[in-house]
Amino acid sequence: MLATLVAKPFHSANWVYEEKYDGIRVLGYKEGSRVRLLSRNAKDRTMRSLTIATAIQELKPFSLLLDGEVVIFDRRQISRFQFLQEDKGDPTFVVFDCLYVDGRDLRHEPLSERRRVLEDVVTFSKRLLLSHRLDRNGLKAYEIAKRRGYEGLVAKDILSPYVEKRSEFWLKVKVHQEEEFVIGGFTQPQGQRQYFGALLLGVYEGGKLRYVGKVGTGFDREKLRSLYRKFKPLIRTNSAFSNPPSEKGAVFLAPRLVAQISYQELTADVRLRQPVYLGLRDDKNADETLLPAAAG
Questions:
Q1: Is 248 a catalytic residue?
Q2: Of 8, 20, 156, 284, which one is the catalytic site residue?
Q3: In the prediction, which pLDDT does 243 show?
Q4: Contacting residues for 129 by C-beta, under 8 A, at least 6 apart
Q5: Among 28, 44, 73, 255, which residue carries the largest CB count within 10 Å?
Q6: What is the DSSP string of 238-290?
């Protein structure tokens, strides 16, 4: 189930407001002693998060299906996607929904009942954590998220079922602007820089890849080298952008890789302002990467 982005915070009866986490969405499957962790695009992440898999394995139910986010927290207990990318710290599975337990399919039950079951079956450990609910008033919840430096909040209708698509039963409001963008090429390095200068970024709009700007910050030498290795087999003669940038010496790539980018705003002419590279996303497909107003 995916949340729909809205522009402003709000308050409504029968809604709850949770911290929005900056990590990788994962479904945790338990069947007896066997546990699997799968990302949104069905990549198996079990071996990369064995401590989380072990924690789920130790839960009482024989069969279980949990929905949540794998994150790494900083010292202020704020989740940071780049920490996951750089393997800085121990991952935690923040669980916010329970879809199945011991033969009982909960997807058609209201969120209030799913949360009750979730709180009953998930015992706190260093690797498992229930999603943090903020103030009952949505406007106050947003101010808390803003003050504490969270990425944003997710508002959820407590009467809603779990639907396996983007839904307006879950709405997200961002405090910090972060989004996924397709890497469609790169510029040549200048001065002392090696490998490449900046990434050329795009999003899909009407089935076409639209250029939205470039990012040249957020890289150290190892990131530049590692990314360049990934770029080599994707180099192509023609641009995949419907509106190619006029960058001298630009090298274009097949639109396969997705980057997580923080930025101040998307301007009226659809250009990124003050973007910073945070890392690659292997849990998102390039064709899922839409204009932020419609993105998930």
A1: no
A2: 20
A3: 95
A4: 92, 93, 94, 95
A5: 28
A6: S--BSS----TT-EEE-S--EEEEE-SEE-TTS-EES-EEEEEESSS-GGG-B
